[in-house]
UniProtKB/TrEMBL annotation:
Protein name from the UniProt record: Protoporphyrinogen IX oxidase
The protein's Enzyme Commission number: 1.3.99.-
GO molecular function terms listed in the Swiss-Prot or TrEMBL record: metal ion binding; protoporphyrinogen oxidase activity
Cleavable signal peptide: none
Subunit structure: Homodimer.
Keywords: Cell membrane, Heme, Iron, Membrane, Metal-binding, Oxidoreductase, Transmembrane, Transmembrane helix
HAMAP family reported for this sequence: HemJ
Subcellular location: Cell membrane
Cell membrane keyword on record: yes
GO biological process, one term: protoporphyrinogen IX biosynthetic process
Length: 190
């Protein structure tokens, strides 16, 4: 029978949560820096050059010092928890349907991470043309992934029995976020 060392499992889980928070804080701020960078294109040339240089510096430091290390530690502790789960089968969690749904969102997060990395490369090569409105919408993608993963994990015992109501609630949340972003952008233009 596979019984995890409970204190070490909860230590892993705590570290996983701490670095998940750090990772998402970094991702949210990264997209905000992308928006600031794009908005410098409307500034006078000298001001634009100074600001863009500073934003590239901030983006690089955020990516290399916070996002990448937090993402690595978050991923490693997550994988360790997959191996060290309760039950009489190693990797027991992989048999759980709620975990399969979580993995779908984590794959989405991996694509989002890749998009962020490619965007940084484009910024550094002065090839970044995404609009600030699109960036604000992209920032909400990370929010939606965060909400989905947290709710899936917190309601895992009930998830399969109430998936329809959770899916409807999730879609209402997504729609609300999109409407708020559009409303804020519309008011900003006035």
């Amino acid at each position: 029978m596979h019984i995890p060392d409970i204190p070490s499992y909860y230590a892993l889980k705590s570290i996983h949560i701490i670095f998940m928070v750090s990772y998402f804080a970094g991702i949210f701020y990264l997209i905000r820096l992308f928006v600031y960078f794009i908005e410098t294109k409307e500034k006078p040339e000298l001001e634009k050059q100074i600001l863009q240089k500073q934003y590239i510096y901030m983006i690089s430091r955020l990516w290399n010092i916070i996002i990448i290390p937090a993402g690595i530690i978050m991923t490693l502790t997550g994988l360790c928890m997959v191996v060290n789960t309760r039950g009489d089968i190693p990797f027991y969690i992989l048999t759980q349907k709620w975990f399969h749904i979580k993995i779908v969102f984590l794959i989405g997060l991996a694509f989002y991470h890749y998009w962020s990395w490619k965007s940084i490369k484009k910024i550094k090569n002065d090839q970044f043309t995404t609009t600030s409105i699109k960036l604000r919408m992209m920032n909400e993608v990370a929010t939606i992934i965060l909400f989905a993963v947290v709710f899936i994990v917190m309601f895992k015992q009930f998830f399969m029995g109430m998936w329809v109501s959770l899916l409807i609630s999730f879609m209402v949340l997504v729609l609300t976020i999109m409407l708020v972003v559009k409303f804020v952008n519309r008011n900003k233009k006035k």
